[in-house]
Amino acid sequence: MTDRTPRHPSWTLVATMCASSLAFIDGSVTNVALSSIEHSFGGSSADLQWTINAYALPLSALLLLGGAAGDHFGRKRMLVAGIVLFAIASLACAAAPSLPRLLAARGAQGIGAAMLMPNSLAILGNAFSGEARGRAIGTWASAGAIAAAVGPPLGGWLVAAVSWRAIFAINLPVSLAAIFIALRYVDESAEGEQPLDWWGATAATLALGALTWALTIWSSHHVATAPVITGAVAGLLLLAGFVLVEHRRGERAMMPLSMFASKPFLGLTVLTFLLYGALGGLLVLLPYTLIVGGGYSPLQAGLSLLPFSIVIGTMSRLMGRLTERIGPRWPLTLGPIVTAAGFALMTRLDPHAGYWIGVAPGMVLVALGMAGAVAPLTTAVLSSVDDRHTGTASGFNSAISRTGGLIATALSGAVIANQAGELVPAFHGAAVVAAAAAFASGVAAFMTLPSILGDRGPEGR
């Protein structure tokens, strides 16, 4: 492999960090505003879940298409277009007069994020190689963690001092900076002739929508009603239709099924789904539990997540470099297992015992484990495909991680629906499930990954 150096490497890295930080900030900051949004618009626990899912659903379903579109039309073009859409949708969120309008704007945010996320990472994967790639991806992951760290406390302060509407305004200066830097300094890449897979994208979106809707209703009422069964069956049929469409399109599919012939790629997919599903549930439920079940203010709930993101932001760059030297197997085995231990410790969470005794120990342990997995996972995925498909690969992996979080959020209604006095024990039950999922993801990595994953190709060639 020959080294590739962009004309403006530092600015290329800054542009991709600013762009992806939008999605990280929005994913974390909204969690601390759920209670305030509920007070503004009313609604049930299912309505609160849709405040998250309206964003996560199009993001999960369209990440594959967003990555493939970048490979087709040009990654820089798709990156800038995604940032512009995200900024406009953020303004619409801030001005939303009702919950349906807010949910519609959140959906538009998700579409914008699905355009910018895979292409920011694909630009990095195409621009750097070797240890430079590991450092760049580690820095990118650190920036995302820092953005996620800043989001909750800043959002909590804005909710308390101004309004929940102000949390969406913090996206605007970051968006403007990312657009300016990308247009001026980022090189265009990957303009191909392969047509886009619109049928596959439609089937994936409808399948995830039906399944999420069914899970959200079920988790709120704990009854398999006719709508729940209908939604689940429709989702599974649409999912089967998606697989059939991808099979018929072969290598022209936005998710070529031939990728799953690779044992390492399959292992990375299982790991991503389980680990990020567990994490997504935690990041939604913990702030809500602390506010409603523990009497925390939105600012205090936001600050409670700070150690998590600081640890990941501090260690991700180091882990990215280490993975380039020793391979992904051990970081992606030990990191999730440590994360599982942190979730297990969360079963003793007691917001009334004080933060440093009742909350922080489990949070710090989860953070240490995730810090060992975030950058190595990203590096391993990008190293498993050729240059033409880095957008598709990053889009697929991001889609799997978001889908895991989406399903976890849909199921979180089983916890959110509890009254304040029952909320903490319900959270403990969710932590047990998260611990099992994280441990299983570490086992999947150990069983499927080689010590050194090759630089290119699904088989590590």
Describe this structure in words.
- The chain is mainly alpha-helical and 461 residues long.
- The protein is built from 19 helices and no strands.
- Helix 3 (45-73) packs antiparallel against helix 17 (390-411) and helix 6 (130-161) runs antiparallel to helix 12 (306-326).
- The longest helix is centred in the N-terminal third of the chain and has 32 residues, at 130-161.
C-alpha termini separation? 11 Å
Low-pLDDT segments, ≥5 res = 455-461
The percent range for helix content is over 70%
Strand content: under 5%
User: What's the order of the H and E elements?
Assistant: HHHHHHHHHHHHHHHHHHH
List keywords for this structure.
globular
What does the secondary structure layout of this molecule look like, with pairings?
Blueprint: H1 9-29, H2 34-41, H3 45-73, H4 75-95, H5 99-127, H6 130-161, H7 171-185, H8 198-221, H9 226-249, H10 263-294, H11 298-304, H12 306-326, H13 329-346, H14 355-358, H15 360-371, H16 374-382, H17 390-411, H18 413-416, H19 420-448
Helix pairs in contact: 1-5, 1-6, 1-7, 3-4, 3-5, 3-8, 3-17, 4-5, 4-7, 5-6, 5-17, 6-11, 6-12, 6-16, 8-9, 8-17, 10-11, 10-17, 10-19, 12-15, 12-16, 13-15, 13-19
